Amino acid sequence: MQLYPSTGIASVKLNVTIDQNFAAKVFVHRIELCSDHQLWKDLPTTFDSIINIQSLLSKLERYSVRVGNYENDLIDVIPIGSAVQHAKPASTNCHGYREGHRCFQCSQLRRILVGRKYRQEEKQRKTQETSGPTDYLHSKMQHSNMSKLQLIEKIHQQKDKITNLQNQILRTRNQFQREMASKGVTLDFSQSLEIKDTMATCNAEMEKACPDENSSQRLFWTEQMKCMNLQSTKGMRWHPMILRWCLYLRQKSSAAYDALRDSGFITLPSSRTLFDYSHYTRSDNGFLPDVIKVLQEEATKRDMYSTEDVWKNYVGILFDEIKIKSDLVYDKHTGELIGYCNLDKVGNQIMDMERSFKDSSSNDIAKYMLVLMVRGVATDLKFPLAGFATLSITADFLYPIIWKAIRILETSAAQLKVLFLTCDLASANRKFFNLHGQVNDFVYFTDNPFSEDGRKIYFVADVPHLIKTTRNCFSNSFSHLNTRKLWNNGKDMSWIHLLTLFEQHCEMSLYTPCPKLTRSQLDLTPFGRMKVNLAAQVLSSTVANALEMMYGDNVSETVNFPRIIDKFFDCLNVRNLYEGRNKRNPNLNPYTNINDERLQWLTGDFLSYFDLWEQSVLQRPGAFTDKQRKDPLEQHFGHYRHRAGDNSNPTVYDVRHMMTTMRAVGAQALAPQHSNINNKENRNMVIDNSRLPKRGNYF
User: Fold this and answer.
1) For residue 642, what pLDDT band results from cuts at 50, 70 and 90?
2) Would you say residue 598 has pLDDT above 90?
3) What pLDDT does 27 receive?
4) What's phi and psi for 157, nearest 5 deg?
5) CA atoms of 434 and 445, how far apart (whole Å)
6) 652-665 and 240-252 helices, crossing angle to 10°
7) Of 1, 53, 167, 359, which residue is most buried, by most CB within 10 angstroms?
8) Which residues lie in coiled coils (predicted)?
9) CB atoms closer than 10 angstroms to residue 212
10) 148, 143, 74: which is closest to 109 by C-alpha?
11) Virtual torsion, Cα 523, 528, 531, 535, nearest 10 deg
12) What does the pLDDT look like over 203-227, one tens digit per residue?
């Protein structure tokens, strides 16, 4: 037992247990020693005799538990999520010194913490001397260097700043309106002509600055000039690209669009005009004939029905669920309550049958929206096909919906060839795949009864979801939730290795072997877990090389794992013809041959790595249960969440209308620059002169 001043509670220092299978475990402050600790070296694997037990206890006497760095003022400066937190109040890997003294590692860490504490106190003192209270909103104030009380103080400062900014905006708006009322000048006819002549004079300069007639800047200037030459904007016929851009802006924030339009700096279409284009067809659940007609026109614009380039006709179906707000919304146009579960004709019949079994007549209010999107294989087609309000989708509901979508795309006016289905590997989706094969078979394709050429449909897992799931599982190995203890070939695969690399060689060092490794990649916040780029940066060959260089063979399995995943992600992340050449990474080169070495690696070495890993775990010596031996390893939805304002979970009504609007917006619905899946690689705007559908004259 030992009492630590930081907690005021007595703690069990050392505990040795031997279970019924004669396997020994050693706990230091209730933390189990890892299997690669040198204590176990030269000791037997089972302790079924007095001699073996005496050898363990004798070796334990040569070790001692260190006091570590338990002081409160030092614990407060340890970064959140640090590997040091998993070792306090004492270091479990120390040995060879008298009790009460610190080992070399703890002493070295203590110097780092004392230095950090001194720098923080010195910075706070200088700040208070020069500017009074500490400004926690400054860009140099990082969360990793702030205590809990400092983070709370920052929240209070943010609230005060928001209040001040809102008051300042209100004062500025009132002042602007008073100035306009008192000093505003209305131009007469002659002065208005002079303004128009001035814009006409600048037109030559604009054409010189933007020589490309198909550029978005040139189009915007031309539309503004056209509007200036009209006596009334009611007669303005806006270009379809301007309408799509305005629909996209208003979808993001209607208040911001109205403020931009009312500012007087530029002329934009009215909200009433945009309403006709965003409500050109009825918004509803399921497959709508009008939507199929729009899909056909989008495919025609991309030349997907060409008899020469038949490869343009191939598409895939992406499907996933988005969490929505469980609520009922009254539609004043149709008089119905929107928000109940609606899974098309077959799905609704199954739900009615289940209600009859439960002897219940009440309808379920939806919690999710299942969205199906058509994605072109060789074109940029991204078209939201249908949405369904669900309580939580299951395989029996998913089966008729997906196959109806395939039938519509293959046999209706759309006439598109479905090549694959892509989704995350949720349990319902995995079960849906398995419905197309025999029990215990690995199912990755099925026959397509609607194809004329005997084409198959392939089931493809969403690679970004796989990378994030792999990173999340790896992060819980000996760290975070500590729900996994990954192991292979006699060595642990621990997230602590990454934390130790960062804290010892990246955070406090001028020279860093891994410059891209940051605290945000290791301290997984709820939003950080959604970002694919953070997961890909952690599971990268750069991190693996740094681990190998600093710690050698001791972390060989932790090194092999990110290397394998990094190559896997690169092989499935080929986006254009030149990225592999520009980044000097052959794994990103385009595929031009079915005998490509990467395809052989994916089906050979990559799968063999996990087979050998499984065999190693199953043959691991020791008393482990079957569960312990199993070491388990949205761009489109962002528009719905943004449209909902402060509420990130839209209703069924919101999602239905946003799908209709995005079908009209088309390619303008770009992903944000800083989303979990960015779209920086292909943001070149193409001027689309095709007619935009409008309510009342389209169907």
Assistant:
1) very low
2) yes
3) 84
4) -65, -35
5) 10
6) 150
7) 53
8) 148-175
9) 11
10) 74
11) 10
12) 677 777 777 777 788 888 888 888 8
What is the signed CA dihedral for 370, 374, 377, 381, rounded to 10 degrees?
Answer: -130
Report the pLDDT value the prediction gives residue 220, as an integer from 0 to 100: 83
The CA radius of gyration of the chain, in Å to the nearest whole number, is 32
- Residue partners of 239: CB distance under 8 A and separation at least 6: 219, 222, 223, 689
Closest-CA residue to 245 (of 633, 666, 592): 666
| 662 contacts 384 by C-beta, under 8 angstroms | yes
Q: Are strands 456-461 and 417-423 parallel, antiparallel or unpaired?
A: parallel
Which residue is it, tokens 């794992």?
A: 561
Q: How far apart are CA 343 and CA 395, in angstroms?
A: 12
User: Which residue is associated with the tokens 């705007």?
Assistant: 685
User: How far is Cα 270 from Cα 316, in angstroms, rounded to an integer?
Assistant: 37
* Strand duo 31-32 + 456-461: pairing: unpaired
Q: And the tokens for 491?
A: 């060595």
- What separation in angstroms does the CA of 191 have from each of 185, 202, 229, 527, 642? 11, 17, 14, 54, 43
Q: Is the pTM of this model over 0.90?
A: no
- Helical packing angle, 652-665 and 635-643, nearest 10°: 120
The length of the chain is: 699
Phi, psi (5° rounding) for residue 623? Answer: -90, 90
The tokens of 539 are what?
Answer: 């599971």
For 560-594, the pLDDT digits (tens) are 999 999 999 999 988 888 899 999 999 999 999 98
Given this model, what pLDDT does residue 394 score? 87
Beta pairing, strands 417-423 & 314-323: parallel
Over the stretch 394-440, which tens digit does the pLDDT of each residue have?
898 899 999 999 999 999 888 999 999 999 888 899 999 999 988 77
Distances (CA, A) of 420 to 303, 377, 459, 690: 21, 9, 6, 29
Q: Quick one: what percent of the chain has pLDDT higher than 70?
A: 73
The least confident of 483-487, 513-517, 604-608, 642-646 is: 642-646
Half-sphere exposure of 609 (CA within 13 A, CB side): 15
Find, among 543, 482, 555, the residue nearest to 87 by Cα.
Answer: 482
Q: Which residues pair with 488 in a beta bridge?
A: 491
CA angle 689, 695, 696 (to 5 degrees): 115
CA separation for the pair 144, 518 (Å, rounded): 11
Query: 698 to each of 76, 236, 347, 383, 691, how far by Cα in Å?
Result: 65, 20, 31, 19, 10
169-178 burial code (b ≥16 CB/10 A, e <16)? eeeeeeeeee
For residues 506 and 514, is the Cβ–Cβ distance under 8 A?
Answer: yes
Residues 6+ apart with CB under 8 A from 462: 318, 320, 422, 423, 424, 425
AA identity, residue 29:
H
**Would the CA dihedral through 421, 425, 431, 434 be positive or negative?**
positive
* d(C-alpha 322, C-alpha 332), whole Å: 25
Secondary structure (DSSP) of 256-306: HHHHHHHTSSS----HHHHHHHHTSS---SS--HHHHHHHHHHHHHTTTT-
**Better-predicted residue by pLDDT, 88 or 539:** 539
**Most confident option among 309-323, 334-348, 434-448:** 309-323
Phi and psi angles of residue 370, each rounded to the nearest 5 degrees, phi first: -85, 120
Distance CA 248, CA 667 (A): 10
Strand ranges, E, within 350-415: 368-376, 382-390
Q: Which DSSP letter does residue 81 get?
A: T
Q: What H or E segment, with its residue span, contains residue 28?
A: strand 24-28
The answer for residues whose C-beta is within 8 angstroms of residue 588's C-beta and 6 or more apart is 570, 573, 574, 575, 579, 580
Domain assignments of the chain as residue spans, ordered by start: 2-117, 193-278, 289-464+636-668, 485-631
End-to-end CA distance of the chain: 81
